[in-house]
Write a structure and sequence with these properties.
The chain is an all-beta fold. The chain has 1 helix and 25 strands. 1% of the residues lie in helices and 46% in strands.
Amino acid sequence: MSPARLGVAGAAAAALLLPLAGQASAAPSVTQDSLTPTTMTAGVAASARLTVHSSSCFTAKTLGVGVRDAAGNNLDFPGNASNVRICPSGVKFTSGSRTLPAGTYTIFGFWQESGGAWHNLPSKKLTVGAAPSTATPTPTSGSPISGQSLTWSDDFSSSIAWGSKWVGDTSSSYRYGDHNPDDNKLDWLDQSKVTTSGGIATFTAQPSSHTLENGKQAWATGLLTTEGSSGGFQVKTGDYAETRVKPPSGSGAWPALWTWKDGNGEIDSFEYHPDNPNLLELTNHVTSGSDYYTDSGAIAPGQWVTIGTHYGAGSVDWYVNGKKVYSDGHGVGSDFSAYLILNLSVCAGQYHPAPSGSTPLTMQADYVRVYR
């Protein structure tokens, strides 16, 4: 990177350098509209995204995103764009991906005039968290509910038992069976997107050739449901269901363990979105009750966490790593039953960010177990 750019302070909000001697006119005014990421995980590659607009149309020689560490060293995102046309209508830039060590950094957009002068845009704080443990989890000892024993499980020690235990290409929770654009989802179900290896199930989502009814490009993604299988397993009032998962880090990922039957029956053991990296959404849609449970020590992208739900008649209780974290006080009633769903949805962008590119998203699961 040119030494001229390195000496420019990054925090001056769209304050441009004075014209060089002999220039006929001042440079156009460039405004930064958005800049991400502001958080990363050490060792996990991420791309930067920058949106800018200008006071009048012109061509910038270079557009990119810079990063400086606490000592002032430049650790820019790779893949600067060249000869970029910037207009009042705006332009979006996505860098190449890179990793950073844990620490606190400064991130900022920059651009270069055709004559060579560099301009830095407003800076933000970029926090890179420590890399979580990637060790294979140790199975838990059983249900936290006294007197229960294991009644149904899948430890993913062999190939997915399609048809007999799980179905992966359709669910009645999806309007069209294999996709559901009405629920802010880009999903198009594809059972090949769930694979097993070494006792771990990996769910993958990636852009597909399908187009949804709303015109958006669908993502082929993995789902497991007991609905429609020959076993037809359902959880019931009093059961305790548990899974151990490794949440994803990619923008747009939306993993969950939940239940569904007859147009509802939905109890969300958890929903997770990487833009809230330490938070689980816990919800009882059958009667009522919900909680945003936050724990930076237990919940993070790429870190194994055990999540369980007791479907009590008078209260649904949620557990994280064996500890009860929320009771809704409403329950599911005495006659509750519903099918299990474990899946990786993809956000369409209404409530949480959609994918920023075409990089596949992944989520892993160690097991699903039900005690009765």
